[in-house]
Amino acid sequence: MRLLVLGGTLFLGRHVAEAALERGHELTLFTRGRTNPDLYPEAEHLVGDRDGDLSALEGREWDAVVDPSAYVPRVASASADLLSGSVGHYTFISSISAYRDFERTGIDEDYPVGELPADHGEDVNAYYGQLKAACERAVTESFEGPVNVVRAGLIVGPYDWTNRFGWWIRRVAAGGEVLIPDAQPWDQQVIDGRDLARWVLDQAECGAGGTFNTTGPEDPLEMREVLETARAVSGSDATFVLVSEGFLLEQGVEPYEELPLWVAVSANPAYAGFDAVDVSRAVASGLRYRALRETVADTLAWERERAGAPDKDWGPSALASGLDPDRERELIAAWREREPSR
Predict the structure, then answer these.
(1) Considering the entire predicted model, what is its pTM?
(2) Domains in the chain, please, with CATH?
(3) How deeply is 48 buried, as exposed, middle or buried, from its count of CB atoms within 10 A (0-12, 13-18, 19+)?
C-alpha cells in the first residue's frame, strides 16, 4: 500500500509510520522538516506546511492517507480537498473531546458533538473539542471516498510527550510516598499508541470507513492498577498515600494539571463519562489491546531515555512538571495533620 502520513515524526503519526514500514508499505511523510527530520530514511520525505503550502502533494497519488495533525477545520479541509480523487482512503484522527459533554457514561459514536460559538476563531486551547468536531465535518464533506474518523481517547506509551500518563510512571518509579487522590472509583481509559496505529492501518488496508471511539481498554481499568503495575515494573519502594478529593480541592490542587489524569468527578459530575465511553464498535472492528504491563514498562524505558537526553527534540512539552515534589510533601503532611489515622 502507498501510504501518506501528514506528520509522522512525533507521537501517534510516528507509530503509524513505524507500523507501516514494518508491514512493507511504501511510506511518504509530509512534514515541515522540523521535528525529528532524520527519522525513517527509507521513507519518502516531502516538506511543506499544513497551513499554507501543500504544493508538494499536488499531482501525486496514494492508496491511503492518515491525518493526525489537523486541529482547525480550514486546515483539515484544505488537505482533504486537495487529496480527494488522488487518494483512496482517508483517516482523520479526532478525539473523544469532540463530544458535546460527558455527563453520562457509555457515550457512543451517535452522541452529539460540540458546536462552535459564532465568534470562536481558531483558539485550539479554548475550543479543542469543538474544533475537532468541525474538522471531522470538513474532512467528510471535502473528501470523496471512504473516511475513517478516529475519536481517540488518551493515547499513551512510547513517544508520549504530553506528560500525563508518563508523569505517573516516572513518579512511582522514583519511589517514596506518592500522593494519590482517593477517588472512588478512579477508572481510566487509555490506549497504547502502537495498538491504535495497528488498528488504523488495518482499517486503511481494508478501506473501511465510519466513526469510532478508539480508547480503552474494553473493561474498566482502575488507576490504582496502573500505579501498582508501575511499582512492580520499576521495582521501586513507592508507597501510596490516599488523600481525599475534597481536601485536595480545598488546597487548590488543579485536577489534570498538577495531578494528571485526575478529573475529580465528585466535584465535577459533568465529567462522569470522560473515562467511560463506549468502545464496542472499534473492538468489533478488530481493535485489540496489549497487556498493561508492557505499556507501562515501555513507557518507563522511554521516559528514562528522554530524561537522559534533555537536549533532544522530544515534543512540545517534554518533561513538563506535574505536582511539585515539595508541594506533594507539604500536602501529605497537611493531610496527616488533619486526619492522623490516615
Answers:
(1) 0.96
(2) 2-157+189-214 (3.40.50.720), 165-188+220-270+292-338 (no CATH)
(3) middle
